[in-house]
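Question (not urgent): is this output format expected?
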Amino acid sequence: MDDEFDKLMEFFSLESQEKEQKLDEIFHKSMEFFDKYKDILSSGSEEERAHMKKKMETLRSKLKEENQRAQNRVQLTPEEIKEIASDSKNFTPSQWEFLQKAKENLAKEKSEKEMRIQMQKRERQKQLREKGKRRSSSRKSGWMKS
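Got this back:
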């Protein structure tokens, strides 16, 4: 896993022209890494998950830097870049297919994560209600009898 991460990080040290030539490879290596990240988060040990989260933070910061460099180089706003990225004419068929699959996967993962959060929230609320019921029935009244 460390080797794959290192190879992925090497792409960011390439010159701009070389990066553009290897864009497909960068996309595919990134998706492979994200898939492994997802697997480790769901089934890895606590140590593996912590290690992987650090790697993802590093990757996110590199992607953010790269995005900023690209924006400065082409002098486009994020909105303009999103508009360009939403047009299939700006990509090869394989790049466009890859982007659509990645977009679907991200939407699916986001939806699943939101559902898990909602389930955890409901479970926590249920626990708090149960705890409140137990506490209220076992308390003595604060009123003194006269």
